[in-house]
Each structure stands twice: as structure tokens, then as C-alpha cells.
Specification:
The chain has 312 residues and is mostly helical. The protein contains 18 helices and two strands. Helix 14 packs across helix 15. The longest helix has 20 residues.
Length: 312
Amino acid sequence: MNKKELKGKMPNKYQGKEKEYKKEWRERNKDQIKEYNQKRYQKNKEKLKRYSRNFKKNNKEKVEKSMKKWREKNKEKVEKYNKRYHQENKEKRNEYDKGYSKRPEVIARRKRPEVIAKKKKYDKEYYKRPEVIIHQKKYFDKPEVKVRKKEYREKNKDNPKYKLKKKESNKKWIKKNPNYFQKYFQKHEKHHQKYMRDYVKNRRKIDKNYKITCNLRYRFWNTLKYYTKTGKIMRFKQYGVDYKAIIEHLKPFPEDLGNYEIHHIQPLFTFNFDNSDGSINLEEVKKAFAPENHQWLTIEEHRKLNHFSLKN
């Protein structure tokens, strides 16, 4: 409808108000317009698709702005539609997403530095939104989600890729929250100490491996404290001590474990744990705590060998 035709058909009250008249006319003839558009689309389907593609290609920014404006204006409508569509086409959508992600051009595009940087920036802003934080909290508090996460952890606990990913994730989190644990333990110090005492006490009763590992660790710490100048200054693994190997060597455990102690065949005081420069002699440490240097002896035999006397 051109301006001349419009003016000819327009009532007097709308003269000079073409936009208002058009709007009212469209409202009155909604069904007719819809029917006409559908017929026109079916008749010129390929032509219109081609035109639409070209228009989007040549007017990217304009189209994006227009779509964004429309989505913001019709937020509830869009959310309802997306939810309904996702529920109705769940399997179809999942299959499509899997196939889409495996396409070579999609994989190549996602590896581009500018795409990675853009996604990181978007994710950073997105996950800070209050509504997203609330939604995530609600989602992760669901019992079925907790069960699913637990099952996933159990299934992948020995998977090297999962372990590495978890380790890196933990490192990043600690970097972002350097004082978290310090503040937490200061706040809950008494409760944590009591919890750890009870935990260690109960676990030692039911877990023989854990009990023996604790004893070996204490023996190792004590040895470095009394027979070296520096004491223990590194992690146990860095000294080359393998507790699992020692425990395997000591198996099978005696049935009445309370009446036995671990004995070092070559006594610990016979080793020279210090180098001339004051550092720890790691080779001597490895020899002293090698699995084959450990054996079970009854408390009485062990203390006789170590020049102890039993109290009557």
C-alpha cells in the first residue's frame, strides 16, 4: 500500500497519522495478513531464503542489534518458547549438538585465539550475573544432580585426564582465594581440631593400612628430627619414601596387630643422614626406609632389641 492509496482509504481522523492507521489496520486484519504471508512465502520460498541470507550477511551489525532489541523486549516469550522447544525436541537437539561439535570446521573455529578470548570474556561476565548465580545454586542443590556428580567422581577417580583437570582447577581456585583456608581454619579452629582427632582415632580403629601409614610417617618425621640438622623440610615423596610399597612388603599383617611393632632390620641410628654441606643425604634415607628394611616383631622382642625394658 503506497502513500496515495493510503491517504485515499484513510478516515479523516487519521490524516497525517499514517503510522497509527497502519498499526490499527494490521491489528484489524491480522488473520488475513498471516494467510497472505504464508502463501507468499510458500510461493517464493527459495528466493526469500536467498534474500534473507544475503541481507544477514551484508547487514550483520544491524541484524544483531535488531534481534537483541527484540529478544530483550520479548524476554518472557523467548524463554517460554526455548523451554518448550527444548523439552519437545530433547533427543533431536542432543543428537544435533553432538554432530555439530564434531564437525571439522566447528572444531577449527573453536580453536582460534580470538574465539577462545571472546568466549572467556563472555563466560566471565555471564557467570557473575545474579540470576545465573541463583540458578546455578538451585541446580547444584538438586538431589539428583548431587547423586550424578558423585557417580561421575567415583567413575573417573582413577582417570589421569580427570585427575589432571581437577588438579589444575584446584590450583586456579587456590590462586583466586589465597587466604580462604587460613580464614576458615581460624574461624573453625576448635571444631576442626576436634573433628580431626575423632576422625583419625576412628579411622585407625577400622583401617589397618591407615594406622600403619600414620605410624610410619611419625617414625620418619621423628628420625629426621633427631638424626639430621634440618629436620623434615620437604614432602615425604621428595625424600623417596614409598609407604604403599612398605605396607605391601609387611603383608599379611599379624591378626593381633596391637601386640606387634614395625622393626628396622638395620637400625636407624647406624645411617648417616647428613651430607658434609648440611643437606640431607637422600640415598641414606632411601636405604633406611626401603621396604626390605622393615619387619614385624612382637613388642617384647622389639623393645629387647632396642634395649627397652617392659614394665611389669
